[in-house]
Specification:
It is built from 2 helices and 9 strands; from the N terminus they run H-E-E-E-E-H-E-E-E-E-E. It is mostly beta strands and about 200 residues long. It has a single domain, classed as Lipocalin, CATH 2.40.128. Strand 5 and strand 6 form a beta hairpin.
Length: about 200
């Protein structure tokens, strides 16, 4: 009788222990649809600003259940466009003064850490590589699950200090005498990634 009670107690312990173990979700990779995704930029100078687009080349987002856990994307730097369609500006941005597209055809971002700040928001930290130089950046992002099963990840304001990537043209911090031709060190990106399984 004592043996039966002990066996029953062990069985109950195993049952209740397994009942309260959190389920383990297998990471799921979603492929970025580059046609539905977008990347826009804004660069500012003392006398005004310029803005435009760059095409994404590829990317993926990794989720554990509904929580973002990793991912990456690659940017085709040869596709830099100015919203005002200035061929002169586009050519200068592709030149060595800025992104050196002939030598550095792509830039890339790889997620390294995610700190959830709400049900659908997170601070994303990762490695951004431009012109072969890699630096860590952090920015807020929002995740939206769509009715068709796809997911949209957006980051409205990603601030990048270009001088950390060797882009020093008309930087006041590096060239104090540049005067009113100064271009601000920071530029901004707005990222929208649409991905599906």
């Amino acid at each position: 009788m004592k043996l039966k009670i002990t066996s029953l107690a062990l069985l109950l312990i195993v049952f209740f222990s397994s009942a309260f173990i959190a389920p383990v979700f297998k990471p799921t990779t979603y492929k970025v649809d580059v046609e539905k995704s977008s990347l826009t930029w804004v660069g500012k100078k003392l006398t005004g600003s310029h803005n435009g687009t760059i095409d994404l080349q590829s990317g993926s987002l990794i989720f554990n259940d509904k929580k973002l856990s990793g991912g990456n994307f690659t940017i085709n730097m040869a596709t830099i466009k100015d919203a005002d369609k200035s061929e002169k500006l586009e050519g200068h941005l592709k030149a060595d003064d800025f992104f050196g597209v002939d030598k550095f055809a792509t830039s890339a971002f790889v997620i390294k850490k995610i700190a959830n700040t709400g049900a659908n928001t997170a601070n994303v930290t990762g490695n951004l590589t431009i012109k072969g130089i890699t630096n860590s950046i952090t920015f807020p992002a929002t995740i939206t699950w769509n009715a068709d099963g796809s997911v949209t990840a957006t980051a409205e304001k990603v601030v990048v200090d270009r001088t950390k990537f060797g882009i020093k043209f008309r930087s006041k911090g590096i060239f104090p005498d540049v005067g009113d031709k100064m271009i601000y060190d920071d530029f901004e990106l707005a990222i929208k990634l649409v991905a599906k399984k």
